[in-house]
Amino acid sequence: MAAQPANAQTDTYRVVRMERFELDILGCGSATPTTLHNPSSQVLNIREKLYMIDCGEGTQLQFRRSKLRFGRLNHIFISHLHGDHCFGLIGLISTLGLLGRTGALVIHTVAGLENTLRPEIDFFCKDNPFEVKIEVFNPKVSEVIYEDRSVSVKTIPLVHRVPCAGFLFEEKQKEAHLLPDMIKFYNIPIRELAKIKQGADFVTEDGKVVPHERLTTPAEPARCYAYCSDTAYSEKIIPVIEGVDLLYHEATFADTDKSRAKETGHSTAGQAAQIAKMANVKKLMLGHFSARYPDNNILLEEARAVFANTVLANEGLREKL
């Protein structure tokens, strides 16, 4: 066999552009409207597919301000049936109809939304050219409720005044990257490439085994994002969110209002940080801020005293994972 290519003896890596995994914050306030924040909503862009999480009032306006594309939104995940998390649905559905949408829109939610939203759709959006499907999940258990080639979505049981669940978005692990020079050098047939990407070695015509690691570079690690709002302090969620790249955890109250947080089924900033620390997450984002705090930096300071890598959510923020 001819001499090996110069890069065959070294760790040669292709420059691979990471596919998109971005979080857009459309709203991070709590129930009482303020001039600082919109009600809860965010959009996760995974490989150019958009997944909306909660849909508070005014979400469609924030969607436009973030320059997101309505046509790429096919799934909405509603954590619970408090108005600041779902009042924006009927307006968004109406707008999608006006834009000429034809593909189905799927809403994943706890039981009860069908009884309230369907009459609104039938009254205000009866001429819409697309179907709105409502798929109900059980908020008391952690289970996969949606899956496609890019991502799986698992529920996170939360502790609130009404049935409520968070969502864990786990990117599917991609296959290894082929090294073109090595594939050419060993004259590997096209039919073998898929197996090599999946981990198989290659056997040459003279019986020599070429290890998979010599023909590929590892794929980028799969990314994961956890959304936890609304919830009282609960260590039961830790096994579900262990080690995620980004945790969004509600921090409705400062630690001085811990009794109010417990009474209303919410968390303080310090409690959110404690969960992040115990779960060994890489980064914490606080949100669902109470209107009583004109400056959310008090929440940030309390959280950072427990978990340093903490940031505040804010409308217009785009976080790349």
From TrEMBL:
Pfam families: Anti-Pycsar_Apyc1, Lactamase_B_2. Its EC number is 3.1.26.11. Gene3D superfamilies: Ribonuclease Z/Hydroxyacylglutathione hydrolase-like. The active site is at 84 (proton acceptor). It comes from the Bacteria. It catalyses: Endonucleolytic cleavage of RNA, removing extra 3' nucleotides from tRNA precursor, generating 3' termini of tRNAs. A 3'-hydroxy group is left at the tRNA terminus and a 5'-phosphoryl group is left at the trailer molecule. Zn(2+) 1 binds at residues 80, 82, 160, 230. GO terms for molecular function: 3'-tRNA processing endoribonuclease activity; zinc ion binding. Its cofactor is Zn(2+). The keyword Zinc applies. Residues 223-289 form the Metallo-beta-lactamase domain. Zn(2+) 2 binds at residues 84-85, 230, 288. The keyword Transit peptide does not apply. Keywords: Endonuclease, Hydrolase, Metal-binding, Nuclease, tRNA processing, Zinc. Transmembrane segments: none annotated. Binds 2 Zn(2+) ions. PANTHER family: ZINC PHOSPHODIESTERASE ELAC PROTEIN 1. Homodimer. Zinc phosphodiesterase, which displays some tRNA 3'-processing endonuclease activity. Probably involved in tRNA maturation, by removing a 3'-trailer from precursor tRNA. Belongs to the RNase Z family. This is Ribonuclease Z.
